[in-house]
Design a protein that fits this description.
alpha/beta; TIM Barrel; eight-stranded parallel barrel; two-stranded antiparallel sheet; 12 helices; 47% helix; 17% strand; binds indole-3-glycerol phosphate
């Protein structure tokens, strides 16, 4: 699955380059202000709510709301930041970021399969405050280069790992914001246990986000008490009966855990 998405993404980048040159984009850029990591640092518990209309594994996930409508619901119910899928395999587009930024003030993560520096500039031009870098599809040299370019553009990177080997590689690059993906990108199955397995190997100065397969406030509470600073949730939110209530449940799950800890 992953190889197929990456191959399609490479083709899409080649087409985009023809439509719009890198020089054109670079001439049009305003640097960001690292608003994504700042928002995470400011709170004890972070919900990154994902605008995800579809996935290659499950097809359509949400047909009732548009991406900007989802963003507005998440923002009104306590999300710390937003993640917006821009890849065609997830029925996303780079324009979705600009649409979301036009109506909410929350920082936005560009959820893309970044394999080419061109995509970093395009994300910033669309208004992204952060980008996802997936360790499984990048060499160490690419990781370092993309971290540097994003930094120069004022964008944060959420660097995603799924295995211990990837976690060790990523920590060596100095990445400060790491996502443990509970989803195996070869099979697309999820298991939250993956976060608990890798947490002991995370260096204490890193901000750790648990990604994928998180459905309930209790999951949020368990993850918070294990030491992650936040969660990234798509499907659990967009497939909920009441998306607003589910957003509040996932925000409160972590906050209530924080209070329980303080009372002890
Ligand atoms: O919808 P979920 O299970 O809550 O997952 C959200 C997010 O973590 C997921 O979309 C994701 C994170 N990294 C990825 C890489 C590829 C595909 C998907 C992802």
């Amino acid at each position: 699955m992953l190889n197929k998405i990456v191959a399609q993404t490479r083709q899409a980048v080649a087409v985009s380059r023809q439509v719009r040159s890198l020089e054109d984009i670079r001439g049009n850029l305003v640097p960001g202000s690292f608003a994504f990591s700042a928002a995470i640092r400011q709170c004890d518990w972070t919900l990154i709510a994902e605008c995800k209309l579809a996935s290659p594994a499950k097809g359509t996930l949400c047909s009732v709301y548009s991406v900007p409508e989802l963003a507005a619901i998440f923002a009104a119910n306590g999300a710390t930041a937003l993640s917006v899928h821009t890849n065609a395999c997830f029925r996303g587009s780079m324009n979705d970021i600009a649409k979301v930024k036009a109506i909410v003030t929350l920082p936005v993560l560009c959820k893309e399969f970044i394999i080419d520096a061109y995509q970093l500039y395009a994300a910033r031009e669309a208004g992204a405050d952060a980008v996802l870098l997936i360790a499984a599809i990048l060499s160490d040299a690419e990781l370092k280069q993309f971290l540097q370019i994003a930094h120069d553009l004022g964008m944060d990177c959420l660097v995603e790992v799924h295995t211990l080997e990837e976690l060790i590689r990523v920590q060596r690059t100095g990445a400060g914001l790491i996502g443990i993906n509970n989803r195996d990108l070869q099979t697309f199955t999820t298991n939250i246990q993956q976060t608990f397995n890798l947490l002991p190997y995370c260096e204490p100065d890193r901000l750790i986000v648990s990604e994928s397969g998180i459905k309930a406030g209790q999951d949020a509470a368990r993850l918070k008490s294990a030491g992650v600073c936040g969660i990234l949730v798509g499907e659990g939110l967009v497939t909920a009966h009441d998306i607003a209530a589910k957003t509040r449940e996932l925000v409160l799950g972590g906050i209530q855990q924080e209070r329980r800890c303080q009372n002890v």
